[in-house]
Amino acid sequence: MTRPRVLQSGLPERSTPGQGGFTMMEIVLTILIIGIAIPSILISFSSLSGSVIPEYTIQAAALAQQQMEAISEHTRTTIPAAGAYTCAAFQATVAEVVCSVAGFTEYSFSWVVEDVDALDPDTSNPGATFGKKVTLTVSRGGMNAINYYTLFATD
Predict the structure, then answer these.
(1) Sheet harboring 131-139: ordered strands across?
(2) What is the dihedral sign for C-alpha 62, 65, 66, 67?
(3) pTM
């Protein structure tokens, strides 16, 4: 019986020279690495379908700020009476409101005006004379509507 020759590296020489290939351990490790890598890659790409929503939210916030700044010079008495308004109806009283912004026509605006009391300005109190809470709702297809608030207190 002949013993296999030991190479300088300390590993035994293959018994049949000229035959190449992978060992079972190399194949198992390769399958394991691929099995870990593929799901990681797929998970990171699966969320790309909703990646435009943050852009819509930022645009909605900028448009809302523009609308709120347009009405900021008004006083409580020049804001429409309590109620819900389409953008066009609100614009009839507050001319500075812009209902269709060039390049952003897919956004829509609606307004709610509520009378509020000084003790609880977050709660509607019909007939209260302290101030008016104005809520602007900005909406667009593909995203949830976003509400923005401002308060117009006594003159």
Answers:
(1) 83-86, 108-116, 131-139, 146-153
(2) positive
(3) 0.64
Quote the longest CA-to-CA distance of the chain.
109
Residues 110 and 89: beta-carbon distance below 8 Å: no
Helix ranges (H only) for 48-120 are 53-71, 87-93
pLDDT digits (tens, 9 = 90+) for 17-30: 556 678 889 999 99
Task: List, as own/partner pairs, every contact residues 75-80 make where C-beta atoms lie below 8 angstroms and the sequence separation is at least 24, other chains included.
Answer: 75/152, 75/155, 76/131, 76/132, 76/152, 76/153, 76/154, 76/155, 77/155, 79/113, 79/132, 79/134, 79/152, 80/111, 80/113
Tokens of 24: 């079972």
User: Between β-strands 108-116 and 131-139, what pairing exists: parallel, antiparallel or unpaired?
Assistant: antiparallel
Report how far residue 137's alpha carbon sits from residue 144's, in angstroms, rounded to the nearest whole number: 10
Query: Rounded CA gap, 92 and 87, in Å?
Result: 9
